[in-house]
Amino acid sequence: IADEAFIRRLPKAELHLHLEGSLEPELMFKLAERNNIELPYASVEEIRAAYDFTNLQSFLDIYYQCADVLRTEQDFYDLTWAYLLRCKEDGVVHTEPFFDPQTHTDRGIPFEVALNGIDRALCDGEEQLNITSGLIMCFLRHLSEEAAFATLEMAKPHLDKIIGVGLDSSEVGHPPEKFANVFAAAAELDLFLVAHAGEEGPSTYIETALDILDVDRIDHGVRCTDDPVLVDSLAENRVPLTVCPLSNTRLKVYDNMNQHPILKLLEQGVCVTVNSDDPAFFGGYLVDNYMALVEGLAMTRAEAVALAANSLEASFIDDELYEEWL
Ligand code: ADE
Ligand code: ZN
Q1: Residue owning the nearest CA to atom 9 of ligand 1
Q2: How buried is residue 29: exposed, middle or buried, by Cβ count under 10 Å (0-12/13-18/19+)?
């Protein structure tokens, strides 16, 4: 059985982390005060008590509301820097975080305000913490493909600060193929491609993300277990899945961690990785997610090593760089 000190020391990459989802209640209060915003909660305890989710949408409603405290470039810097300090504690050597530009541009915050604050913190993280990174911007799938195109247009002058595009928000009813044209346009710009698929949505969304969007990785992807032929094909092609154990139990994809399929998929040869998704809302950062697998599934040291190695393999950094960590 793996233990916490062992897991903390393993060099790991985090490949599925929404920066807006790393906003801790303490920082939320600080930013609300700084920006003269009245929060609908009286205390940090009251906020944490509101984080009692029944499904993905019940979480997203609160998550978008909380993001309203992020107003200035410094706010985005502080958010990102706080996350990077947690990475350092957790032995994360490389991270490819997400941000949702439309959550900010739709309430009047310029694209550059969010991007520049995040980018400046990521640059400081490389210099001061020795954590390498690559930023991924996600399109909100409950909005139109036209709106995604407008976001891609805003990103064009800043492609030195963005390595890829993703797809997130409400999954069911918004299949990957809705975004076929904008993903093709992003591929033309040499951006990496990822998409949330098979979190709450069916396994067919994983297939269309791969076949129609031509993504390099699948975010979540756990519902592949409904289709054994798909699981074999994911294993054969080493398609990475960025799995988020605490997110899956908090959003009731599984009632209990002992039902989680990640270690079974690992055994079947699928390139599964461990990630924290929205740690401030789901009760834990990367090491906490590994420890949840120790507690729920009696994960061994060998399994923890394999998951950490998968995270480096699945990252978009040069293979030579990660071999130094293996
Ligand atoms: N946005 C932030 N976290 C998400 C998740 N787990 N699924 C879909 N959209 C998200
Ligand atoms: Zn996610």
Answers
A1: 169
A2: middle
In angstroms, the CA 13 to CA 96 distance is 8
AA identity, residue 4:
E
Closest Cα to atom 8 of ligand 1: 169
Q: Which ligand 1 atom sits closest to the C-alpha of 251?
A: 6
pTM for this model (two decimals): 0.98
Instruction: Tell me the CA–centroid distance for residue 277 and ligand 2, in Å.
Output: 5
Query: For residues 205, 206, 209 and 214, what is the CA-based torsion angle, rounded to 10 degrees?
Result: -160
> What order of strands is seen across the sheet that includes strand 92-95?
12-14, 92-95, 132-133
What is the CA(36)–ligand 1 centre distance, in A?
28
ipTM reported for the complex, 2 dp: 0.98
Distance 92 CA to ligand 2 centre (A): 18
Q: Map out the domains of the chain with their CATH numbers.
A: 4-323 (3.20.20.140)
In this structure, the residue with its CA closest to atom 10 of ligand 1 is: 169
Q: Is the CB of 103 under 6 A from ligand 1?
A: no
- The set of long-range contacts for 211-214, using a CB threshold of 8 Å and a minimum separation of 24, is 212/176, 212/177, 212/180, 213/167, 213/176, 213/177, 213/179, 213/180, 213/183, 214/183, 214/187
Q: What is the pLDDT of residues 254-295, one digit of tens each?
A: 999 999 999 999 999 999 999 999 999 999 999 999 999 999
Ligand 1 near 277 CB (within 6 A): yes
Distances (CA, A) of 267 to 44, 305, 306, 307, 312: 41, 13, 10, 11, 18
Could you identify the atom of ligand 1 that is nearest to the CA of residue 20?
2
d(CA 300, CA 306): 10
Give the Cα-Cα-Cα angle 83, 163, 171 (nearest 5 degrees).
75
